[in-house]
């Protein structure tokens, strides 16, 4: 895998880079102001990503109170790359605290948000438009119908979801298929060695329903680079997590030790190990990297220049695994081996014969035999 290869995003014809550029820190306003970058600081990061061959760029109307989109619009125009990039943005967060319809997932806000993003991004279409966060209110039918209208109107090319429960995404995709509406192509979710929650439901769902998962905060905001150490007053280190007191325990520090050990054996920086692991996990279409400088981005882009040997991947998997509990135990080795007799071979059909299905039964039997 490398930056000069492009992969299809979910069940679509859209080709994207295995590392996307996150621009949550482009701009100095709003919620992300504390670690925001000016346009002058953002430009070399953006240029470096393009030079490396990257084409998937992520922003949101909410980032730095709209500045991220505004800066990106200018940088894209300046570089003359609007057609070459796959421009992703999102809507949901309120843009006017006094207006009950200025936030959430409903149609009125959705259409207003698209129009505002188009203006800030200086473009007439968005390549991938995502619902940013589930609002727990708007019916899925309203979102899908509007996405479909926006595709037909040429305002967006593809649609997807971010930060939603797996049942919601499954209902959305099934509803879209049943009613011949534009299907979703992507799910944007948190995923890293310290946060593997989505492996239980979202990843297998994405694989089954044609949704390519893009992983946000693959370095856990910089934690997995190894530059932070715990102190009585929170984390200490040169970056945006400094002074924070995340709810991390022995588990997370154990994962960091495993990343350090693997990085030492391979002779590469810890950030590259953590990113390589995310980008090459099953069902992950692209890891969305954030960078505070072009030098950081450079180091991160080299994360695809090597292969993680199986035994070192196993070391990382072991340190970060979260044993299934309760219901989820029913879907693993012990219980599942009661469902099909061990002598029966159940597995994938040969490549090209049919879409791959998970070979869990065979894998579980060989793991327990
Ligand atoms: N959908 C959502 O809800 C959601 C939520 C969060 C993020 N996102 C998207 O995901 C993107 C990435 O998120 P993230 O910034 O949290 O990702 P991340 O890759 O986990 O963290 C990136 C941060 O780590 C530090 N870093 C990166 N490379 C480094 C290196 N080589 N050496 C030392 N430090 C390094 C930098 O922070 P310092 O500047 O502190 O050094 C950088 O800003 C965002 O820009 C956004 O597009 C989406």
UniProtKB/TrEMBL annotation:
Molecular-function GO terms, alphabetical: oxidoreductase activity
UniProt entry keywords in alphabetical sequence: Oxidoreductase
Lineage top rank: taxon: Bacteria
SUPFAM superfamilies, alphabetized: NAD(P)-linked oxidoreductase (SSF51430)
Gene3D superfamilies membership: NADP-dependent oxidoreductase domain (3.20.20.100)
Entry's Gene Ontology cellular component terms: cytosol
Domain NADP-dependent oxidoreductase: residue ranges: 18-319
InterPro entries assigned: AKR_Detox_Biosynth, NAD(P)_OxRdtase_dom_sf, NADP_OxRdtase_dom
Protein name: Aryl-alcohol dehydrogenase-like predicted oxidoreductase
Organism: Nonomuraea fuscirosea
Organism placement in taxonomy: Bacteria, Bacillati, Actinomycetota, Actinomycetes, Streptosporangiales
């Amino acid at each position: 895998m490398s930056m000069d290869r492009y992969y299809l995003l979910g069940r679509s014809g859209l080709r994207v880079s295995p590392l996307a550029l996150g621009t949550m820190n482009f701009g100095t306003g709003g919620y992300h102001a504390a670690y925001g970058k000016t346009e002058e600081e953002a430009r070399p990061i953006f240029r470096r990503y393009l030079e490396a061959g990257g084409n998937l760029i992520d922003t949101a109307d909410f980032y730095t109170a709209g500045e991220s989109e505004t800066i990106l619009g200018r940088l894209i125009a300046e570089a003359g790359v609007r057609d070459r990039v796959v421009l992703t943005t999102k809507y949901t967060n309120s843009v006017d605290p006094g207006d009950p319809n200025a936030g959430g997932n409903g149609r009125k806000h959705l259409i207003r948000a698209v129009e505002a993003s188009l203006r800030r991004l200086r473009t007439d279409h968005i390549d991938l438009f995502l619902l940013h966060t589930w609002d727990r209110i708007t019916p899925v039918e309203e979102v899908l119908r509007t996405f479909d209208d926006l595709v037909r109107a040429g305002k967006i090319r593809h649609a997807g979801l971010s930060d939603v429960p797996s049942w919601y995404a499954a209902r959305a995709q099934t509803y879209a298929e049943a009613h011949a509406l534009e299907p979703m192509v992507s799910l944007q979710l948190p995923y890293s060695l310290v946060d593997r929650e989505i492996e239980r439901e979202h990843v297998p769902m994405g694989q089954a329903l044609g949704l390519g998962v893009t992983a946000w905060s693959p370095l856990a905001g910089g934690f997995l680079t190894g530059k932070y150490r715990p102190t009585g007053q929170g984390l200490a280190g040169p970056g945006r997590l400094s002074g924070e007191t995340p709810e991390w325990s022995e588990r997370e520090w154990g994962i960091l030790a495993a990343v350090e050990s693997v990085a030492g054996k391979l002779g590469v920086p810890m950030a590259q190990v953590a990113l390589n692991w995310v980008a090459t996990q099953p069902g992950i279409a692209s890891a969305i990297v954030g960078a505070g400088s072009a030098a950081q981005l450079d180091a991160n882009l080299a994360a695809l220049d090597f292969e993680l040997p199986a035994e070192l991947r196993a070391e990382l998997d072991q340190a970060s695994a979260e044993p299934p509990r309760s219901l989820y135990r029913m879907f693993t080795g012990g219980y599942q081996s009661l469902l099909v007799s061990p002598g029966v071979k159940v597995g994938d059909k040969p490549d090209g014969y049919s879409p791959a299905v998970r070979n869990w039964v065979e894998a579980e039997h060989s793991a327990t035999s």
